[in-house]
Amino acid sequence: xxxxxxxxxxxxxxxxxxxxxxxxxxxxxxxxxxxxxxxxxxxxxxxxxxxxxxxxxxxxxxxxxxxxxxxxxxxxxxxxxxxxxxxxxxxxxxxxxxxxxxxxxxxxxxxxxxxxxxxxxxxxxxxxxxxxxxxxxxxxxxxxxxxxxxxxxxxxxxxxxxxxxxxxxxxxxxxxxxxxxxxxxxxxxxxxxxxxxxxxxxxxxxxxxxxxxxxxxxxxxxxxxxxxxxxxxxxxxxxxxxxxxxxxxxxxxxxxxxxxxxxxxxxxxxxxxxxxxxxxxxxxxxxxxxxxxxxxxxxxxxxxxxxxxxxxxxxxxxxxxxxxxxxxxxxxxxxxxxxxxxxxxxxxxxxxxxxxxxxxxxxxxxxxxxxxxxxxxxxxxxxxxxxxxxxxxxxxxxxxxxx
Length: 403
Hints:
By secondary structure, this protein is of the alpha+beta class. It has eight helices and 23 strands. It has a five-stranded antiparallel β-sheet, with helices on one face. The protein is globular.
């Protein structure tokens, strides 16, 4: 198990929301697919052979045996590249709330999941709360700084600027505002399983250019690998997992035993297959979602019943740059469940197999798990630590907002 760290040295533009024809906003994290593409391009630029359309392929030639990237090149499609979050943070679950109006003495973070499942109603003061989004680490909000950069579009046929065509990119700055209100370096990190020889070869690439517009100087990252110590590894065990499930169900109806799947990264679950209208709808109904996912997720249908889903989604479109330019390059639109979604399953205590759930947590759900998509955690501690049902006293948090 290794920790991969990408320290940002120039503004970062990760293809995200195109709010209109001349404005784009970067994502606040680095998907594993983007990290893989950056490494593929860096290795191809060092390859002695032609790699068509920047698609890395092991050639098996004599000079490949002495290449410094032989092990990585051979197994590149099998390597697991994780989603990198800023400062190793995690997304807030969709059940997280905070007060709408705060002063110096009120910094509350609340989780409404247990009250939704046990009492089927809102908390007493929920009208004064709003949903938390973004990232948190150990209860502290991690908020990146953005800067808007406006450029002139280029007409490549005339090799000149397009008249009256400006576009703006809202990029991630190299610094962020810490909880102590200090500017610090932005470091994206995550843990992944790699062989020592693979890490040795990847470590030869000290500077990696990630994301869009790298020819303009964006996305320059200093890459570091660190072997995780046993104390540092955030990996789970079946025993820890079962303990979290039991702690979550304390105080709940004994006739209803819940197992929670928290989505830590975006997931491709094939929701566009629900029907012809699913792509045009802003939201898919909970009934459609439960009926579809109950057949999709690899849990025994006789033991686990999908009880409720908290989720948001977006439609992703784009181009397949691995194909020749003269061929059709536009990808089929896909529905993606956003990180922070919460899947609630109901089961009998005697039917819960912690080994089965542990393996599910290790492999993830949906497609493209090798790119870091579909990573889950069973019954994350956030739901018990900030549960509103713990008592009348509101929970204090060290979360500091940089509004």
